[in-house]
Design brief:
Acyl-CoA dehydrogenase family protein; globular; 11 helices; FAD; flavoprotein; oxidoreductase; Butyryl-CoA Dehydrogenase, subunit A, domain 3; Acyl-CoA_Oxase/DH_mid-dom_sf; 4-stranded antiparallel sheet; binds flavin-adenine dinucleotide; 383 residues
């Protein structure tokens, strides 16, 4: 693997850095306090091409490889995880899955709007009673003539109240466990689908996280994505790539923690000297720096494997596990460098810690990543 970026990759990273510094950084504190990102950011993300990365140009995408996607995602994560999550879900979990599994009609219907930022997608897998055990979800889709009628509920859905389409997973056959699950593309204005914003989150406060309720939601059979009964494997393949995106976002959080901590340590004086001159503070900084490099390299390896068409799922679990735990450590260490000032939201590190905390939970908790890695090592599944 060549770690030197191509000219195109370096240019995409600069573009993302400028976008974050110009469009995101000035608003981060206000959005966090208001628990609401300014929705106009979606259109801007589309215009700059970030919602179409790795999507074919024929469907309005901006193409590019997965390392470019990671570079942009890392920058967005450095700026604001709430914005990074909009892209990771609408592009990473929804648009890419439509590109891989969708019919020509489904691709034409959704991809140009999703990549342009004219529509947003959300990923509806988790339910109130099934999180890690998603294969046992209970939302039901019953065939009725040329339609399916869907009943059930979904929990913790990122972009939920903003989205125009839900990639929804529901049980549509009598086959047991994950074998009975199918994937559907459900427009959010379909009668019977209601959404409620979840407030009071520890972090990602600007992000629209929602609970979805489905009561006799009728969709045509053409809303089925991929083959009936293949929904769970579609979800797992989407999440495997999604874990790379979460890992890249975590590298962004860790890098932001490093930048803030190094800057502050150079300016803040105690006992007549900058605190950066004290070895115990340097230990905190060097611990963060090593975590940043290790998390980034694990993440880039996943992108390299995907771009070369190699098996990548276990590497993605390793990257997601390490990078998410590292992001929490790095933000926590940075907060220590800031002392009491780190504890108030005029300084960036408290938000980094709050935003980092969810990364070890969603798209498979750290425990679930360990079980996936353990299964790959032993051939024995704990699920
Ligand atoms: C802010 C936010 C955004 C989210 N966005 C989305 C989204 O867009 N779409 C979506 O579908 N979901 C989303 N989720 C849901 C997320 O993926 C789940 O929260 C996650 O999968 C964990 O499920 P759970 O919360 O039900 O925890 P549980 O599965 O109940 O787990 C609780 C604890 O038990 C542990 N555990 C469970 N099973 C095992 C086991 N077999 N062995 C060892 N330990 C185990 C877990 O690791 C965890 O520590 C989001 C969640 C949050 C908080």
């Amino acid at each position: 693997m060549n770690l030197e970026l191509s000219e195109e990759q370096a240019a995409a990273r600069r573009l993302a850095k400028d976008f974050v510094d110009g469009e995101i950084a000035p608003n981060v504190v206000a959005w966090d306090r208001a628990e609401d990102v300014d929705r106009s950011i979606v259109k801007k993300l589309g215009e700059v091409g970030f919602l179409g990365l790795t999507i074919d140009e024929a469907y309005g995408g901006s193409g590019g490889d997965h390392l470019t996607y990671c570079l942009v995602t890392e920058e967005l994560g450095r700026g604001d995880s709430s914005v990074r999550g909009i892209v990771s879900v609408s592009l990473g979990l929804v648009a890419k899955t439509i590109q891989t599994y969708g019919s020509e009609e489904q691709k034409r219907q959704w991809l140009p709007r999703l990549t342009a930022g004219e529509a947003l997608g959300c990923f509806g897998l988790t339910e109130p009673g099934t999180g890690s055990d998603a294969g046992n979800l209970v939302t039901k889709a019953v065939r009725d003539g040329d339609d399916y009628v869907i009943n059930g509920s979904k929990m913790f859905i990122t972009n939920g109240t903003w989205a125009d389409v839900v990639l929804l997973f529901a049980r549509s056959t009598d086959a047991p466990g994950h074998k009975g699950v199918s994937a559907f593309l459900v427009p959010t204005d379909t009668p019977g689908l209601t959404r409620r914003t979840i407030h009071g989150k520890l972090g990602l406060r600007g992000q629209a996280t929602a609970e979805l309720a489905l009561e006799d939601v009728r969709v045509p059979a053409s809303a089925l994505l991929g083959r009936e009964g293949k929904g769970f494997s579609i979800a797992m393949s989407a999440l495997a790539k999604g874990r790379m995106s979460v890992a890249a976002g975590c590298v962004g959080i860790a890098q932001a923690a490093l930048d803030a901590a190094v800057g502050y340590a150079g300016e803040r004086e105690q006992f007549g000297k900058p605190i950066a001159s004290y070895q115990l503070v340097q230990e905190l900084l060097s611990d963060i720096a090593v975590d940043v490099d290790a998390a980034r390299l694990l993440t880039w390896r996943v992108a390299d494997l995907i771009d070369r068409g190699e098996e990548f799922a276990t590497a993605a679990s390793k990257a997601k596990l390490f990078a998410s735990e590292a992001a929490v450590r790095c933000a926590n260490n940075a907060l220590q460098v800031f002392g009491g000032y780190g504890y108030i939201d005029e300084y960036p590190v408290g938000k980094l810690l709050r935003d980092a905390r969810v990364m070890t939970l969603y798209e498979g908790t750290s425990q679930i990543q360990k079980l996936i890695i353990g299964r790959a090592l032993t051939g024995v599944s704990a699920f």
